[in-house]
Design a protein that fits this description.
Blueprint (H helix, E strand, L loop, with lengths): L9 H15 L11 H8 L3 H13 L3 E4 L3 E4 L4 E4 L6 H7 L4 E12 L2 H7 L6 E11 L2 E11 L15 H8 L4 E12 L2 H7 L6 E11 L4 E10 L3 E4 L5
Parallel strand pairs: 3-10
Antiparallel strand pairs: 1-2, 4-5, 5-6, 6-9, 7-8, 8-9
Helix pairs in contact: 1-3, 2-3
Bound molecules: 2-acetamido-2-deoxy-6-O-phosphono-alpha-D-glucopyranose.
2-acetamido-2-deoxy-6-O-phosphono-alpha-D-glucopyranose binds next to helix 4, strand 6, helix 6, strand 8 and strand 9.
Length: about 240
């Protein structure tokens, strides 16, 4: 499994081997992985190298470490397909998980240029700015900042946005959410995201921007979100 002559660093080879074992089901959720000492003896490599690999696998969400107990295979990441336009609440419920929203900030502001342009409203028109931490069974998964025109979706309250925004838009406002464009970009957590999401500074994040539209192409929302890289895997299906 380890090729000491490979240009790939040894810690990287160990990481790949462990990920492959998890992928193949040879290592299952909750299984204990060998200790640093066992790894280093088995492959005749330094414990420093093993530690580096394990630390990276923990940071990336493949393994979890329990002090005094050992290191175990983590729960599989949430596989989020990008074929349908769903809400966070729907996504979590469809997995039998309990969705949560912690409100960090909720206010009505005058739309700055960039937001006004995307929502196709006038500069300074009122928009809601909503900052929420989204959680699944109590674990923070993502933080989201949402902009919606209050002209289009009036009557939002702190209480509403602690539930499902999409449900409010569709059921209470009678608007039909139709389509969205989404951009994904890799990043790492800085201090603010690490505090809010309960992850380490430098842990992997996926920044997602979603622009969603109603059937007549009226822009509905702009959402900037940071998803935890150790919890999520996004799946896209393509056809040729
Ligand atoms: C998802 C959407 C977000 C939408 C939210 C509504 C992504 C990247 N984002 O989190 O754009 O505002 O769902 O969820 O998927 P809610 O109806 O539970 O409030």
């Amino acid at each position: 499994m380890i090729d000491k002559n490979s240009p790939m660093p040894i810690y990287y080879q160990i990481e790949e081997a462990v990920k492959e074992q998890i992928e193949k089901g040879e290592l299952k959720e909750g299984d204990m992985v060998p200790s640093e000492r066992e790894f280093s003896e088995r492959y005749q490599i330094s414990r420093m190298t093993v530690r580096q690999a394990i630390t990276n696998l923990v940071r990336d969400g493949y393994l979890v470490r329990f002090i005094g107990k050992g290191t175990f295979v983590a729960r599989r990441k949430i596989r989020q397909t990008l074929f349908g336009l769903t809400s966070f609440t729907e996504d979590m419920k469809s997995r039998g998980m309990n969705p949560g929203s912690q409100l960090l900030d909720f206010r009505e502001i005058k739309a700055p240029g960039s937001i006004a342009e995307k929502l196709r409203i006038s500069l300074g028109d009122p928009v809601y700015e909503i900052k929420r931490v989204r959680s699944a069974n109590g674990t923070p998964m993502a933080m989201e900042t949402t902009y919606l025109s209050s002209g289009l979706v009036p009557g939002l309250t702190e209480e509403t946005v602690q539930g499902s925004l999409y449900q409010y838009v569709e059921e209470k406002r009678g608007l039909k959410i139709h389509s969205a464009v989404q951009e994904l970009e890799a990043s790492v957590a800085r201090k603010a995201e690490s505090d809010i999401l309960g992850i380490e500074i430098g842990a992997p994040l996926l920044w997602i921007k979603r622009f969603s539209f109603l059937k007549d192409k009226t822009p509905l929302e702009i959402v900037h979100s940071a998803y935890r890289g150790d919890q999520y895997r996004f799946v896209v299906e393509m056809q040729r």
